[in-house]
Amino acid sequence: MKRETKKQMFAIFMLVTFVGSTAAIAFMSSSGTEEKEKVQLIIDTPLANADEATYLQKNYVILKYFYNDECTACDTPMVEQLVQDLGGTIIIEEIDTTLYPDEAITYSVQSVPYYYFKGSTITKLSGNVTSDELFKAACDIYFDPIDQCSLT
């Protein structure tokens, strides 16, 4: 058993012995067992500016992936693989230009597929790109480097 775990068990024992079970339960529920915030990493609608700012502050990269159903070069599974490759530190907005034409105009999308990466800087890619090019574009704009990017 790890030393920290032993210390926690002893503290719980002492609380139960001297203070009662109510205090022990309160201690146990606040002793670092909080579940990490669950973030939906692939969404099919544009994010609000406030949500983008929140994710960027938490060192996520945001990828606005513009596509439509008529696009033969669009490779959604390749884009979604970035979530796995980057250890869940990227938010992908899959934006169908036929459903969200105003969003496409806002980001000056001329053709699909179009990739708009937002992090410490902005990176734009369009046309046929490889998974390696997408991975590198994301890695280059994290505010704080992540382990997955140091392997390249």
Characterise the protein shown here.
A hairpin with a 3-residue loop joins strand 4 and strand 5. The protein folds into 2 domains: about 1-35; about 40-150, Glutaredoxin, CATH 3.40.30.10. Strands 1-3-2-4-5 form a 5-stranded mixed sheet. It is an alpha/beta fold. It is globular and about 35 Å long. It has 6 helices and 5 strands. Helix 1 runs antiparallel to helix 2. It has helices at about 5-20, 20-30, 50-55, 75-85, 100-105, 130-140, and strands at about 40-45, 60-65, 90-95, 115-120, 120-125.
Domain tally: 2
The CATH class of the largest domain: Alpha Beta
Unreliable spans: 15-36
Within the CATH hierarchy, at the fold level, what is the topology of the largest domain? Glutaredoxin
Shape category = globular
Q: Helix tally? A: 6
Helix content: 25-40%
Structural class: alpha/beta
Query: What share of residues are in beta strands?
Result: 15-25%
> How many distinct beta strands?
5
- Biggest pleated sheet: 5 strands, mixed
Radius of gyration: 22 Å
CATH H-level superfamily title of the largest domain? Glutaredoxin
Report the mean per-residue pLDDT as an integer: 81
> If classified by CATH, what would the architecture of the largest domain be?
3-Layer(aba) Sandwich
Strand order of the main beta sheet, please?
1-3-2-4-5
Distance between the termini: 36 Å
